[in-house]
């Protein structure tokens, strides 16, 4: 079922559900209707271009662990995460899977299509109940050629992705596991709070893969952070002092530099 732009403006409860629905699957949380402008990729576009992009847009709802697309599939839509998380991964020739990224609300799944007959270079899978706004790839690619504003937005998106990859490479090569974990937890702390509680967005197995460390290494890093006021119970995290955690993060970085900047990803 296609959910047209007028229906999208009213909310996303009537989206199309992919695959078999689990009887006891938790519902996707809904708050306010999705808007294209809420996505960073479209933040600077004019209303006319946004309206044209919205034509034939629909909302897809995925169960936990459901495949959204697979490496080698033809690109049919540009997807923007509304709720939940999406895991991007790549399979090697030997069949080994490498986690590339974890995406959350507002992020685009894969690079925006700019021409016909593009192929996905990665696989995407839902992590938890997930919904995404799907824009037809053909219409999007056509508008990229017609709209200077959209073309500029796609180019800026590509620059941002490159910058993000550089940051990730720097993290993997220059930060040890303790610093990577501390920085990851700091990114989840609510702004302006000195003492906070939150829930990890996904399980620790995925956190370890995202940070480029073994699960045993992640467990040791969590244990070390207990001395600095960070307590965990399964996916629940309590931070006694955000500023203390930030200071310790800097200490981890200086310690890694003094040892030659080795990443410690084992």
UniProtKB/TrEMBL annotation:
Organism: Methylocystis borbori
Assigned keywords, A-Z: Coiled coil, DNA-binding, Transcription, Transcription regulation
Domain Cyclic nucleotide-binding residue range list: 41-161
Name this polypeptide is given: Crp/Fnr family transcriptional regulator
Region (Disordered) residue spans: 1-35
Domain of life: Bacteria
Domain HTH crp-type residues, every copy: 175-243
Coiled-coil zones: 155-182
